[in-house]
Specification:
single chain, about 260 residues, alpha+beta, five-stranded mixed beta sheet, 11 helices, about 45% helix, elongated
Length: about 260
């Protein structure tokens, strides 16, 4: 689900200029999102156009293209947006449901999350049926295409069976700067307990490109190792994924480097 490169064509440039002028329905027919997709094909349009087609409409003063671009700007990619939730997009107060984004109510947020979840499920279908995590290289190979497109930190958990076969697609625990309040053992191990997981590997990305662990990364990992011993679900490794530098793969395995005692 990595975000595709933008397609810079005259059609797109024209539509971006026109989109700022007001309602989508008032735009020339050739610049409306559905018309653009019909003409250019779904593979050749940008993500904001695809999102606007799913969302269908905006709100007074905010057209659907503005809404789509705002979501992508805030989250950085479709992958990061897919890791969100209806609850995150729509914050409830004591009187009503007031959403973070004008034009994105609860029902529309549910439709958006459903569409993005379908995409995530399709990724899971393409995973090798018995993908096995034998080394940190396997973890890196599984996550790198996704991780290296992100501008924010994502923390994943890989659920493994007794033979270290992947039981499901990587599970996203949190997004944003990592700290103990966000990456809490109960959040990391909750799904592992429910699915009778034998062991886990955790991983996260460093958007800066440098995969070296921070003091907080090490502290969180030690906390998770101790929690895993209590509930008898072993933490095998914590892999940090950086970005390619000079076309070389970059990742850091805490087990391989001996940074944390996993035994």
């Amino acid at each position: 689900m990595a975000q595709r490169p933008s397609k810079h064509r005259t059609d797109k440039t024209d539509y971006l200029i026109e989109a700022k002028s007001g309602r989508v329905k008032d735009m020339p027919e050739r610049l409306k999102p559905r018309e653009i997709m019909d003409r250019m094909g779904k593979e050749n349009v940008s993500d904001d156009i695809l999102l606007s087609i799913i969302l269908r409409s905006g709100a007074r003063g905010t057209n659907v293209l503005d809404l789509a671009r705002k979501l992508l700007q805030d989250y950085g990619s479709l992958t990061a947006l897919a890791s969100s939730s209806v609850e995150e997009l729509c914050v409830k107060d004591s009187q009503k449901t007031s959403c973070r984004y004008k034009g994105l109510g609860k029902v529309k947020a549910q439709v958006l999350m459903a569409a993005l979840q379908i995409g995530k499920n399709m990724v899971q279908e393409t995973l090798p049926k018995r993908f096995c995590i034998k080394s940190p290289d396997d973890t890196y190979r599984l996550l790198k295409d996704h991780a290296q497109t992100l501008d924010t930190e994502i923390f994943w958990v890989l659920h493994l069976d007794a033979k270290n076969h992947l039981k499901s697609a990587p599970y996203t625990v949190t997004r944003g700067l990592l700290d103990a309040s966000l990456v809490h053992p109960r959040e990391v191990f909750r799904e592992a307990i429910r699915s009778a997981t034998a062991a886990i590997v955790v991983a996260h990305n460093h958007p800066s490109g440098d995969p070296s662990p921070s003091t907080e990364d090490l502290r969180i990992t030690r906390q998770l190792v101790d929690a895993g011993k209590i509930i008898d679900i072993k933490l095998l490794d914590h892999v940090i994924i950086g970005k390619n530098r000079d076309h070389q793969d970059v990742f850091f395995s805490m087990r391989e480097k001996g940074s944390v005692n996993f035994e």
